[in-house]
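Form P-L/3: holo structure prediction, ligand guanosine-5'-diphosphate.
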Amino acid sequence: MSRKNIVAVVGRPNVGKSTLFNALAGSRIAIVQDTPGVTRDRIYQDVEWLNHSFTLIDTGGIEPDSKDIILSQMREQAQIAIDTADVILFMVDVKQGLTDSDSKVADMLRRSGKPVVLCVNKVDSYSRDSLDVYEFYNLGIGEPFPISAVNKLGIGDLLEEVVSHFSKDSTNDEEDDTTKIAIIGKPNVGKSSIINKLIGENRLIVSDIAGTTRDAIDTDVKYNGKKYTFIDTAGLRRKSKVKDELEHYMIVRTVGAVERADVAILVINAEDGVTEQDAKIAGIAHESGKAVIIAVNKWDLIEKDNHSVKEFTKNIRNTLAFMNYAEIIFISAQTGQRLVKLYEMIDIVSENHALRVSTGVLNEIMTQAVVMQQPPSDKGKILKLYYITQASVKPPTFVIFVNDKKLMHFSYTRYIENQIREAFGFKGTPLRFIIRERK
Ligand code: GDP
Ligand code: GDP
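OUTPUT (holo model):
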């Protein structure tokens, strides 16, 4: 499966970005349960539309109170969109009309060479507002698509235009023999130090080809004859004094990096333990379905005894209970402790992430599991599990056919998952289950 496309929404405050988000939220298919214990703002959203699935990111920060700040903030949004998105959705407001900051931002987007789709919101009635839509041709970024986010009008045409810009060569990914690793984590945990140390003399080239801004933070490395690309989320440091805004950018950047990766390395500062911010970032990795390694860095600073690793591991497992599949490693970017091991771990988890298990063996395991622990029942009706098959990889996704979906309790799915993990390992990768009814 190819990686998910990223669509970033750029637009002034109040043009209706959140409203569009909400309108699209309904189309989300809930294969995975919402990540427990991780609250998050609606900054990013997975959207399924026809045969496409993509991640929508709202680059809008908090609402500034002066005109100057609006423009500088929009520039910043636009830059993030240019850095991370495959398609940029530029949103304007027909009621406010064309503003100076819209024009300036449109220039910037046009120069980036990224596909930009111009969306004119609040066109609630076609008769009166539609003439005003033509004004936006003046932005020089192509045809304006009129929508009414509130009334959910025009959204189909808009999405059709958006997905038409997705690259068609999904085979590209399969042939790509480099493992892509996103190094994620809150500021100052040591992300850059780890990348620098991992790279060492293994660096192939630093890709900062003009025009591909987002590659500027990617580093290609050859180690033991294998190719790796490290994606650094610390690479571009945003200057902002507002704490919420910093966090917003951190989340947007993390989503962008994780989507492009096979493996996410969540870096935690050993001195801090697992914090709320760590959990938020972990939630992003979890929902993306990527392989995950939790690297506890600055291990050199901890006064250790026999219990330190055990205690720390317990703490991580408790706080980040939703990603118990993640591998944990204790490292030091300073001394280089266990960084070679980290390379080995990357290999293992990325292999597991792409592992395919034969249908025959899977069904043997499921049959045995059912014998060992009786499936749940309700009012005399017993859950029957007919058949299991692996539908896809990255992450490994299984379809189980049953007689009645309502009887397939979450805990029983978890039990089946554990049996599969016991048989095949699947260390470091999440597994997904889709339950289907068959009469
Ligand atoms: P954001 O700041 O860009 O996220 O904008 P919001 O989504 O919060 O919307 C700002 C205001 O515009 C809210 O009062 C919305 O109800 C309103 N709004 C959003 N979409 C539409 C629309 O299609 N038509 C009209 N008339 N109002 C809208
Ligand atoms: P980033 O913001 O996550 O990229 O963090 P940096 O790589 O910039 O590191 C932040 C600070 O922590 C720097 O002063 C590093 O020298 C220091 N640091 C990073 N890794 C380690 C480590 O393993 N041990 C110690 N003692 N310091 C570290």
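COMMENT: The first strand starts at residue 5 and ends at 11.
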